[in-house]
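Hey, quick one: can you model this chain's 3D structure?
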Amino acid sequence: MGRLRVLLVSDLHGSSVAFGKLSNAIKFYKADVVVFAGDLTGKALVPIVREDGSFSLGSGVSKYVVNVFGDVKAVGDKDLDKVIKELRSRGYYPFIIDRTGYEELANNRDRVRETFVKLMINALEEDLGKVVNRYRETGVKLLVMPGNDDYPEVADYVKKQASDVLVPIDEDVVEFNGYYFLGFGYSTPTPWNTPREVSEEELRARVEKLIREVDQSRLNRLIMVIHDPPYNTLIDQAYQLTKDFKPVVRGGEVLRTHVGSKSVRALIEEYSPLMGLHGHIHEAPGVDYVRSNNGVRVPVINAGSEYSEGVLRMAYLIIEDSKLKNYFLVRG
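Sure thing. Here's the predicted structure for all 332 residues.
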């Protein structure tokens, strides 16, 4: 079996800059397929409230107020585009609204969700569209799935975008160049109660059902793309938090704890796939190994994420003869 070059990314969370870098990545990294292992969209709406001159800014008069998690700024017309671009680069969804509209929106949870989802999908259409157009020029496939932070409407949108370039893989098995890519974008429960979470038991049952769709004699060609990383590995170590979500610091260092899925680990141990491709834990990029029940060391990879800084983290993998021959962790 020939060489397969895979570029793994995850958790771009709506950052327009990170998506832009993803569209250009194949100029520098000659990949056959790019795998996007979940969490496509951002996490916050940012209203830009039009105040029509009621706030002063320096010697001029501003027209807008922006509140980003308590950091309130007055902005004039000449700086508005710059502010919007900066917010989008960090994965936020800015939108302009007048004071009356803002107050009405703030008191209507359903309208907030509707607005949030609409802006998510509009931004994803633009960002993902650029990636698809660029990949079409070079013949590269994009295997993509939503993650736990993506709303069900986003998951439905991704399914509808299937094309000659974009291949949805969530809860599906896709064959590419003799290898089987199994996708599962849900996560086990998190402290943030995100839109797509399932129990450990449900995760195992749903993934196991997908594994049975693969010829069991070819599991050594199975690549499990699961958003949740396996438990007790180098790639599932998150910062330990207090009950009010503050980092636990001891001796000047933030403590870490294993937060991956025990079911994902058990599935790897039982079925011994070729490898696991994961995301979810932004601060734990790396490569580790899970020893399967038949003694095989199965590589598991997390590219990590620094989307809010406009940084694109990737893992470049070279597969030959059903083995991971080489890999590089890339930060660009």
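One thing worth noting: The first strand starts at residue 4 and ends at 9.
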